[in-house]
Specification:
Helix content: 40-55%
Strand order of the largest sheet: 3-4-5-6-7-2-10-14-13-12-11
Largest sheet: 11 strands, mixed
Number of strands: 19
Length: about 550
């Protein structure tokens, strides 16, 4: 019986280094006292000194706030961008970032109309018919100001603010960019891999840097840029306690494992997907997140529990969903296995949203990632399988620079050599050059005198270099190795029993009896021709 191993066990032999790091974070920027109607009334009474309960006094503040953004862009010579519908803000940011040469500064300010929560005043009447004002929370489409900037500690980030009271905002950072900046300052040598690391001189030092990112650093970033950018609140407001705070809207926790054989990584990951399509089942999810999940009874655990495979271009990704949280796995840039846990609602884990809860959330995110790798199973090691195939199939370059051809699948001479090995594995005393010459000639449809001893010696050298045969010490005889026996059996059976019959079925224009492969290929071609005709293309 085949015993499956965990993905973590398989990776242990193939990971050069790994890094756990907070990835992207989206944070709410808000004044806690101003998130409900009574708080607005209190602000009007205490800060504006007005006895009314209305949003009307906010209009002059909002107008001044909007003008301050225009003035800031003009005075600081910062480009102003009005986002159009469908425009990708990140693409615009990268365009401006490409021409930025400093270590810190504002790239541009953007304006967009977006739906958001805000307050408005309603006219109501009491039981005696007298009118009075009433503040209610509602939604509306209003202007938002985006600040795309580069920070000396955090690198690229953006802040956005609503132009209407209570002037809530969002902050978006990338923990990997922060780690890159800190690694440079600490003189830890590395090369980047998009929002990650491709190589690093001291993985332990880099991990220590990533571990340092926490609430204090993120709050310091916000405070620093609030002092630079236009604000809606005055110093008197700040002294009265009306200060911006941060809460976690979305947090990504990533584990990047750099593989020693990048080419094998995609093969490995595709086997991970195939063998773990059931990872989203409630019983598996409960192991990953260490949470009890009730699928039956009066009060089943709410939310989706599922596995999804999504392909972007040619890169597949697997998603495992738990309530508002998702774990994503993918083969990053053909070099690393990336596992990301994205938490969209901290209350899924009975944790508050305040930024001070980031350490507890971090523990949950990284623990889920590690547990997933332990829960995922593989029936075999696909990286070893890929290496075993390429070892035989690909050419070898010796220390002297000489090239020795591989035993290529589909090559007639290579196939004949593998067939010969299956015969020689029955000979306890091994075989000689002339034995291979006589047998190989027959398999190639030739006579022995049509093959020179030099040609056969070259074939023997190929087989030895690829580990399929070994020379018996002190003799001119050769024996087939266990590797040679296994490869010869598998590849000859594949060639004889699968490739040849399959190609025969596909290429026979008029088979005497219908076969499923030929019928399926013909139906596929007809469907494709029909589609091209409907699209107006030439076949």
């Amino acid at each position: 019986m085949t015993v499956a191993r965990s993905v973590a066990d398989v990776l242990a032999d193939h990971v050069m280094f790994e890094v756990e790091c907070i990835d992207r974070m989206y944070l709410n920027v808000y004044v806690p006292q101003l998130q409900y109607p009574a708080g607005l009334v209190g602000f009007v009474h205490r800060q504006l000194g007005l006895p009314i309960a209305s949003t009307a006094p906010m209009a002059p503040i909002s107008d001044a706030f909007t003008k301050a953004w225009r003035r800031f862009a003009r005075d600081q010579q910062v480009p102003w961008v009005d986002f159009v519908k469908g425009a990708r803000k990140d693409d615009i940011m990268h365009q401006h970032l490409a021409g930025f040469t400093g270590t810190e500064g504002v790239l541009f300010i953007g304006r967009a109309q977006e739906k958001t929560s805000l307050f408005r005043t309603e006219k109501r009447r009491d039981a005696e018919g007298r009118a009075y004002s009433w503040i209610v929370k509602t939604t509306g489409v209003v202007n938002h100001f985006y600040v795309y900037a580069v920070d000396d500690d955090f690198g690229p980030f953006f802040l956005k603010f609503c132009s209407y009271f209570p002037y809530n905002g969002r902050l978006c950072i990338n923990g990997h960019e922060w780690a890159k900046r800190q690694a440079t300052k600490d003189e830890v040598t590395f090369t980047a891999l998009d929002n990650g690391f491709a190589t690093v001189e001291d993985p332990g030092a880099l991990q220590a840097i990533c571990d340092r990112l926490g609430p204090a650093q993120i709050q310091a970033l916000l405070d620093k840029w609030l002092a630079i950018l236009p604000g809606a609140f005055t110093e008197a407001d700040h002294d009265a306690g009306y200060r911006y705070e941060l809460s976690i809207l979305q947090a990504e926790f990533s584990l990047t494992q750099m593989l020693d054989k990048p080419v094998s990584g995609r093969v490995f990951f595709e086997h991970v997907i195939r063998d773990n399509l059931d990872a989203g089942r409630p019983d598996r999810i409960s192991l990953v997140f260490n949470r009890r999940i009730r699928s039956k009874g009066r009060r089943p655990t709410p939310g989706l529990f599922r596995t999804r495979v999504i392909t972007e271009g040619v890169t597949p990704s697997v998603y495992i969903d738990y309530k508002h949280t998702a774990i994503k796995q993918y083969h990053k840039h053909g070099k690393a296995l990336r596992t990301e846990t994205t938490i969209n609602d901290t209350r899924d884990f009975k944790i508050g949203k305040r930024l001070t809860n980031l350490p507890a959330l971090r523990e949950i995110g990284f623990s889920a990632t590690r547990r997933l790798l332990s829960v995922q199973r593989l029936s075999h090691n696909p990286i070893h399988a890929e290496q075993a195939f390429t070892t035989v199939h690909d050419p070898i370059i010796t220390n002297t620079g000489q090239r020795i051809a591989g035993i290529r699948l589909g090559d007639r001479r290579a196939h004949a050599l593998l067939q010969a090995l299956l015969v020689f594995r029955l000979l306890p005393n091994g075989f000689l050059n002339r034995d291979l010459r006589d047998l190989l000639a027959g398999l190639l449809g030739k006579t022995p005198d049509q093959l020179s001893a030099g040609q056969v010696s070259y074939d023997l050298r190929r087989l030895r270099a690829h580990g399929l045969i070994t020379r018996i010490p002190g003799t001119h005889r050769y024996q087939i190795t266990d590797t040679g026996s296994h490869h010869a059996m598998l590849l000859t059976h594949l060639h004889t029993r699968l490739l040849q019959p399959g190609l025969a079925h596909l290429t026979d224009p008029d088979p005497p009896t219908p076969n499923p492969l030929h019928t399926a290929a013909r139906n596929y071609q007809h469907a494709l021709d029909h589609l091209t005709q409907e699209a107006g293309f030439a076949a």
